[in-house]
Structure formats: C-alpha cells, structure tokens
Design brief:
Bound molecules: zinc ion
Distance between the termini: 28 Å
CATH superfamily: Ribonuclease Z/Hydroxyacylglutathione hydrolase-like
CATH architecture: 4-Layer Sandwich
Helix content: 10-25%
CATH topology: Metallo-beta-lactamase, Chain A
Low-confidence stretches: 1-17
Shape: globular
C-alpha cells in the first residue's frame, strides 16, 4: 500500500534539497507528499482523472509545480492555518486560479499569517481570504474522489481532517507516536484528545493516517501504542 518512490531533484537548483514521494495509489488516484518549509511540513497533492487537489501548501516548490503540470487544480485546502500549512497560499492560488477553502474558525490565524511567520523568523506572504468555508459533514472532491470533512479542533480552533476511502489526511492532529501541540494560540489539550477519540479513533484500525509532519501511520498503531493516547 505504501510506495516509496523518492525523487531527489538536482541539489544544485534548490536549497534545501526538496523531495516528494508517491505515498498512495489506487486506480487512477495518486497521493503525493512534499516536505516543505523549515518546519518540514507535509503538503499533499491528490491527483485523479486530470484534476489535482492541493492540501496545505506551506510554500510553492518546483516539485509541487511539476506535480500539478497538466492537471486542473480547482481547490486548495488548508487543514488549519498555521504558517507552515498555508504559507504558499498566495502564490499557488495565483498560479492555479483555484478556490481556497478552510474552516471559518481558522480565519484569525490565516489573517495573521505574516505575523505567525515572524514569530519563527520565517517570512510568509499574506494569504488571500478563503472563497468559502468548510465544516463537519461537507465534502471535498477531486476527479472522481470525494473526501468527507470532519472537524477536529484542539491543535487549532478550526482544524479539519479529510477522510478518504481507507485513509485520512489529518494535518497536525495525530502523528506517529505523538499528537499535535496545544501550546500555540487557540490550542486546547482536552479538546484535541476529544477530537482524536471521536473523529479519528472512530475510523477502522487499518486506516492510513497521512499527517502534517513526519511519517504516516495507521489508526490501529496509534490506538495501541501512542503514549499520549493510552486509555483514552
Ligand atoms: Zn499546526
Ligand atoms: Zn504543522
């Protein structure tokens, strides 16, 4: 299920060396993962039937542009609006003409994108306003693929996850052996635990978790062995 095609680009062209991997494919659908920004954030591109969906563009890299070449990008989604997940919004929206969607409770963070970057000494361009908001129960589509939207606040106030068939794109809610931090503005620890319990741990054990930082995992592995979630 997990393909590890890692493509190193010419190291002379960019610093740091960016790479991406095809993390999932089924039928015509492909999910590509790109490590971005000094925060090593995972941006995902889901391609299906000539369309591409971009999730959490922390920045715009040549690899990202190559991956969407020849595909129609209708939508850019931010799982949440920390700077490492939306820093590339302005540039990618300008290039693709796509609509931007996120949860309305992330608007404060989105509007403070440059200030967030300044806290960490990383410059980010301001993001355009979202074209529309998404909430629990909505769907997001690309080609013939449809994701269900679930609200999973706690790491940030309006964090959403995208549930696909057998996998979930989960932003910074749940990591392999860890959970999202809750010490940033809008974070809430007990809310995060509640979100994981009710929005992620209700998925089947074999569900693959594609998260915002680090390697993918599965719901079953985290249910059994995540030290932050024992007994929840
Ligand atoms: Zn975050
Ligand atoms: Zn992050």
């Amino acid at each position: 299920m997990r393909l590890t095609v890692r493509t190193e680009v010419d190291p002379g062209k960019r610093a740091p060396v960016a790479s991406y991997k095809l993390v999932y494919s089924r039928g015509a659908m492909e999910i590509l993962c790109f490590e971005m920004t000094p925060f090593v954030e995972n941006c995902y591109v889901v391609r299906d039937s000539g369309e591409a969906l971009i999730i959490d563009p922390g920045e715009v890299t040549t690899e990202l542009l190559d991956a969407i070449k020849g595909y129609t990008v209708k939508t850019v989604v931010n799982t949440h609006c920390h700077c490492d997940h939306c820093g590339g919004n302005a540039e990618i929206l300008q290039i693709t003409g796509a609509e931007l969607i996120c949860h309305k409770d992330e608007l404060g963070l989105l509007r403070a994108l440059p200030q967030q970057g300044m806290m960490f000494g990383v410059p980010f361009d301001p993001s355009p306003e979202p074209d529309r908001f998404i909430k629990e129960g909505d769907t997001v589509s690309v080609g013939n693929i449809t994701f269900g939207v679930r609200e999973a606040p706690g790491h940030s106030p309006g964090h959403i996850v995208l549930v696909g068939d057998g996998f979930v794109i989960s932003g910074d809610v749940l990591f392999a052996g860890s959970i999202g931090r809750t010490d940033l503005p809008g974070g809430n620890y007990s809310q995060l635990i509640h979100s994981i319990k009710t929005k992620l741990f209700t998925l089947p054990d074999e569900t693959v978790v594609y998260n915002g930082h680090g390697p993918s995992t599965t719901i079953g592995i985290e249910r059994r062995s995540n030290p932050f979630l024992v007994g929840v």
